[in-house]
Amino acid sequence: MSLRWRIALWYAALLVVALSAISGTIAWRLQSILYDEAKYSTNATMRNIVQSAQQSSPFSLEDPDAGTLEFLFNSNNLANWSSPTSYVQVDSAGGYPLAKTANLGSARIPPNTTLDGKHPDAFRRITIDGAPFLVEDRLISEDANSAVIHVAQPLDLIYRVFAQATQTIVVVLIAGAIAVTLLSFAIATQAITPINELSDAMRRFRFDRLDTRLRPSGRSDEIGRLADSFNDLLARLEEAFARERRFISDASHELKTPLTSMNANAQLLLRWGENDPAVRRESLETIARESASLAEMVNGMLTLAKADRGDAIPKEPVALAQLASEVVRAAASRAAEKGLHLSFEHAATPTVLGDPALLRQLVGNLVDNAIKFSERGEVTVRVGALPTLAWLEVTDSGPGIPSEELAHIFDRFYRADKARSRDVPGTGLGLAIVRSIARVHGGEVAVAAGAAGGACFRVTLPLLDALTEPS
Ligand code: ADP
Predict the structure, then answer these.
(1) Alpha carbon of 208 to those of 95, 204, 213: distances in Å?
(2) Which pLDDT score, from 0 to 100, does residue 216 have?
(3) What is the mean pLDDT of residues 88-102?
(4) What is the predicted pLDDT for the residue at 141?
(5) Which of 259, 275, 281, 325 is the most interior residue, by most CB within 10 Å?
(6) Is residue 352 classed exposed, middle or buried when 0-12, 13-18 and 19+ CB atoms within 10 A define those classes?
(7) Residue 426 CA, closest ligand 1 atom number
(8) What topology is assigned to 3-161 in CATH?
(9) Distance from the alpha carbon of residue 370 to the mean position of ligand 1, in angstroms
(10) What is the tens place of the pLDDT at every residue in 398-453?
(11) Predicted pLDDT at 471
């Protein structure tokens, strides 16, 4: 059974149970109120009769011997209490009817055998000629004689009222149940349609159609938020897949260039290598250069993959200033070859939590770029600390980064045209690796113009103390 029907039927069942309980209680209360009312008026008649009978004996001037019982045994005395809702009959002690109101006709109220001196009064429900009656019986004793007064009141009106009320309640209940079932089915349909659309859209979802989106629901409720979340998820998936596709196509393109060159040179070697030493040397040099570039690129891709894994990287406390000074020392000869002045300064000795090999690569890439792109002047590496952050700056006196390239230099495989045309070696992965490593350590990298007109790359990383101290 569909969820819609289940919701609708559950609602209807709950409504029927709740309404039945309420209307059952009301009907029961109504009946007992009407019944109490009948009892009250019967009892009032009974009290009147008894009172009149008792008062009759001392004041009866016509018949000085007449007592209470004599008054009761005369049907004429009872006529006062005869009405369409009041029937009176007086029986002898043996249960024989001695007097009764005319409205009883030939009918007779049966005797009540349960009365005695201890229980002289009782109410009971009986049927007389098929009609329901409420009867009050009262045992009256006088001078060793006794009589029983019966006051009866028809109950058919009460029963009719009750039957009609019950009938109305049942009709309203059935109509209400049907209405609620249909209404809750309609509401459930309205609520569930977006869920169905959602599941249809999920079923239709294909990895080659990541641009699929749910129709904007325009709703701000849970369903609307679910649809929006699903659309967000799709957008992020699409972005991630596009990034992966771009990476694969860039990587294949970048790997193809050195491979093609290596292949061409291998062909040259095969054809003329044996006879022409100049060709042999040139080809071997090219193959060596291209294979080194390939190895560098593959290493870069492996580092990126490692940095992308995020939490899986084992981290330990790293003294950033010491690590940076080691990297500077290792690069000193390369800087000297180009006549550059490479220096290291530190205003603090901050400790960060990280992977030393990755952090060394981060500093190394920045220093390598600074040396690579600067023709003269100096490259300075500085380390310092702020209250919660460690910072590292690499400033050079190269050409700097043109503003139109700022948005791209951290992209994977991005190389400025200038870098390519000037034949500066590189893979276009260096800065992407720097950014990935910085981010996986909870930090960031930014670039600005250096004071000397070159570029100034600044990396910030959270201090170990800031990570461990409760904030
Ligand atoms: P690669 O250095 O292999 O070209 P990177 O990702 O390290 O790749 O750098 C991307 C681009 O950013 C470079 O091609 C270059 O145009 C620019 N760039 C990086 N560092 C510097 C720098 N210190 N000075 C000027 N330009 C730079």
Answers:
(1) 101, 11, 13
(2) 65
(3) 90
(4) 83
(5) 325
(6) buried
(7) 3
(8) Beta-Lactamase (3.30.450)
(9) 8
(10) 999 988 888 889 988 888 765 555 567 778 889 999 999 999 999 999 999 877 78
(11) 45
Closest C-alpha among 414, 449, 438, 429 to residue 363: 438
Mutate to test the pocket of ligand 1, among 254, 378, 415 (most ligand atoms within 8 A of CB): 415
| CATH, range 311-468 | 3.30.565.10
- Spell out the domain ranges in the chain: 3-161, 222-305, 311-468
Give the SS3 label for residue 231. helix
Q: Residues 160-178: what's their mean pLDDT?
A: 88
pLDDT in tens, 354-389: 999 899 999 999 999 999 999 889 999 999 999 999
Q: How far is the CA of 391 from the centre of ligand 1 (A)?
A: 20
Question: How many CA atoms lie less than 13 Å away from 117 in the CB half-sphere?
Answer: 4
Cα(321) to ligand 1 centroid in Å equals 24
> Closest residue (by CA) to atom 3 of ligand 1?
426
Evaluate: CB of 410 within 6 angstroms of ligand 1: no
HSE-CB at 436 with a 13 A cutoff on CA atoms is: 23
364 lines ligand 1 (CB under 6 A): no
Structure tokens that stand for 272 in this block: 């003329």
Single-letter amino acid code for the residue at 72: L
The length of the chain is: 471
Helix (H) or strand (E) holding 90: strand 87-92
pLDDT computed for residue 420 by the predictor: 53
Tell how far the Cα of 460 is from the centroid of ligand 1, in angstroms. 19
Q: Among 409, 410, 422, name the best residue to mutate to test ligand 1's pocket (greatest count of ligand atoms within 8 A of Cβ).
A: 409
DSSP letters of 394-445?
A: EE--S----GGGTTTTTSTT---HHHHHTT----S-HHHHHHHHHHHTT-EE
Closest CA to 435 of 369, 349, 342, 343: 369
450 lines ligand 1 (CB under 6 A): no
